[in-house]
Amino acid sequence: MSRQVFLYDPPDRFVAGTVGMPGRRTFFLQATAGPRTTSVALEKTQVAALAERMDELLDEVVRRSGGNAAVPAVAPTEISDSAPLDTPIEEEFRVGTMALAWDGEEERMIVEAQALVELEADSEEDLAEAEERLLQDEENGPPMLRVRLTGAQARAFCKRALDVVNAGRPPCPLCSLPLDPEGHVCPRQNGYRRGA
C-alpha cells in the first residue's frame, strides 16, 4: 500500500488544540485548506517540543539572515487564532515522528508529522536498521502530515501551541506536579493530600 501524505501548501489554518478536560485532554494538530481538514493526535510533550523547536528554528533563520528573512520576531496579532478545533475531529493517525525544516528559497517552515509505527527487532542494531529503512521509504512508509508555513504562520502556531499546553492543570507550588481539582498527594509533603 502506498504512503498517504496529507499535504497543506499553504494551509488556511494550522493549529494545535485539545479535546477534553484538563488532566484528560487529547492533543491534536489540525490543518485546514478549503473544505479539507486533517487532524492527527499526539502527546502534550510532542506539542510543546514542536512549538519550542519551531520558535528556535525561526530565531536562527532571523539571526542568520541578519534580520532580512520574512519572519516576524513575535507572533503577529492580526493572524492569531484562538478558535476551537474544527469539528468533527476525525483522527487520521497518532503521531510518532516529527521533523522540521526551513526552505530558504521559498522562505517556508516545513512541518512533518509521521504516524506512529510499531517495529519488532531481535537486537538494537536490527531495530535501528528497521527505523532507518522506514524513514527512507518515500513510497510505502506510514501516513504523514506535511505542512508548509510562512514565517508569520509559524510564529502564530508556536504561540497558540504553547498557550494550549500551558492551559492545563496548575502545578503544585511545592513539587510542580499537576494539581487535580480534588487535590493531589504531594511527595514533598510526605503524602499529605493538598487541595487545589
Binned, the helix content reads 25-40%
Number of helices: 3
Q: Name the overall outline.
A: globular
Spatial strand sequence of the major β-sheet: 1-7-6-5-4-3-2
Distance, first to last CA: 51 Å
Query: How many strand elements?
Result: 9
Strand content: 25-35%
Instruction: Classify the secondary structure makeup into a structural class.
Output: alpha+beta
Largest sheet data? 7 strands, mixed
Unreliable stretches covering 5 or more consecutive residues: none
Characteristic terms for this protein:
196 residues
Describe it for me?
A 7-stranded mixed β-sheet has the order 1-7-6-5-4-3-2. Strands 8-9 form a two-stranded antiparallel sheet. The protein contains 3 helices and 9 strands. Helices cover 26% and strands 29% of the residues. A hairpin with a 7-residue loop joins strand 8 (184-185) and strand 9 (193-194). It is α+β, with helices and mostly antiparallel strands and 196 residues long. The chain is globular and about 55 Å long.
Write the layout of secondary structure elements.
Elements: E1 5-8, E2 13-19, E3 26-33, E4 36-42, H1 44-65, E5 91-103, E6 108-115, H2 124-136, E7 144-149, H3 151-166, E8 184-185, E9 193-194
Parallel strand pairs: 1-7, 4-5
Antiparallel strand pairs: 2-3, 3-4, 5-6, 6-7, 8-9
